[in-house]
Automatic annotation (TrEMBL):
It comes from Vanrija humicola. The lineage of its organism: Eukaryota, Fungi, Dikarya, Basidiomycota, Agaricomycotina. Belongs to the mitochondrial carrier (TC 2.A.29) family. This is Mitochondrial ornithine carrier protein. GO terms for biological process: mitochondrial L-ornithine transmembrane transport. PROSITE patterns: SOLCAR. GO terms for molecular function: L-ornithine transmembrane transporter activity.
Length: 353
């Protein structure tokens, strides 16, 4: 367990969490952009992309490499806020659990994997309220390219959004009542313009559109993220303890970077697999203002039902495979960098040093 007793421990968690989060975001943003575009394709028109690879090719072909980083400003700020909040609340939640269930004679003890998962869920629940406005801005910026793509005649399309080789059914989609011409397309909005437009249209609460989805994803996902990470890391620790000196207690500080990163990668995959449909619904809700500006803000459960009825389970898991492929390395970077900074530079924030 990370020491939370020093006065500067909070600053340490916030600082190292921010650095780790921003570094990982630079790696993962192109993958996240493809995921959001796959999730946010309108259900009342043919899918614009056949799958992740097609989405990647179209994005680069039409927008260049810079298109893969569309909307990066909000995620960079969000990654700093998200991971700083996650690690800060995670360590504080561990301290709270120890206060409720102390070790022998009121001392420290090693928390169980389940308790660490609960601490992670607590961190995710708190962080969800920080993340929702940031993700709303990010998602809207990421789909502005496909805002007005629309068919002018009825067509038959595949309903699946995942791997092109997967089996799928077909459905005839009618044309939109009022296709939007290229000349009528508005210029892409920046993050501050999106915030201003959202507040002007739906009030401050409009920035938290999709909060239910974010809360479910972050609470359950963070339970899996931290829980699986700690579980795998403890397996590495136990393996090293067998070969350590009798008087040496192996900790995460003794693990090699690859062991920390492998543990983090496992946690990242578990995070996304656990509650991915909630993220799909959240992305669809948050991009509704771009795709259907004349409609009121959607609700969580009606949106879930609409996705399921029109595209089935595949629609709810659109982009999941791609997300797992990028979340493994991304979480490996986050945990590996956070733990390395903590073991190498944590003394800076220790008043007892």
């Amino acid at each position: 367990m990370t020491d939370t007793s020093t006065p500067l421990s909070a600053v340490r968690d916030l600082t190292f969490g921010s650095i780790a989060g921003m570094t990982a975001k630079l790696f993962e943003h192109p993958f996240d952009l493809v995921k959001v575009r796959l999730q946010s394709q309108p259900t009342d028109r043919p899918p614009m992309f056949k799958g992740p690879l097609d989405c990647f090719k179209q994005t680069v072909g039409k927008e260049g490499i810079r298109g893969l980083y569309r909307g990066i400003s909000a995620p960079i700020a969000g990654a700093a806020a998200e991971n700083a909040s996650l690690f800060f609340v995670y360590n504080k939640a561990q301290a709270a659990i120890l206060a409720l269930r102390p070790g022998p004679d009121g001392g420290l003890r090693e928390l169980t994997t389940m308790e660490l998962g609960v601490a992670g869920a607590t961190a995710g629940a708190v962080t969800s309220f920080v993340l929702t406005p940031i993700e709303l801005v990010k998602c809207r910026m990421q789909v502005q390219m496909i805002t007005h793509a629309a068919p002018t005649s009825a067509v038959t399309v595949k309903t699946m959004l995942s791997a092109p080789a997967s089996p799928s059914s077909t459905v005839t989609v009618p044309p939109l009542a009022r296709p939007v011409t290229t000349a009528a397309r508005p210029a892409p909005l920046g993050p501050f313009a999106i915030i201003a437009q959202t507040v002007r249209t739906n009030g401050i609460q409009g920035l938290w559109l999709g909060q239910t989805g974010t809360f479910l994803r972050e609470t359950g996902g963070s339970f899996a993220w931290f829980g699986v990470y700690e579980f795998v890391a403890r397996k590495f620790i136990a393996r090293r303890q067998k070969h350590a000196a009798a008087d040496h207690i192996v900790t995460k500080a003794d693990l090699a970077p690859w062991e920390l990163m492998a543990s983090g990668a496992c946690g990242g995959v578990a995070y996304n697999v656990s509650l991915f449909p909630a993220d799909s619904v959240k992305s669809t809700m948050q991009t509704s203002a771009e795709l259907h500006p004349d409609r009121p803000p959607p609700k969580f459960f009606p949106t879930f039902k609409q996705i399921y009825q029109t595209r089935g389970i595949r629609g709810l898991y659109a982009g999941c495979a791609l997300t797992c492929l990028r979340s493994g390395p991304s979480s490996a970077i986050i945990f590996g960098l956070f733990e390395t900074l903590n073991s190498k530079l944590g003394w800076i924030f220790d008043t007892r040093a």
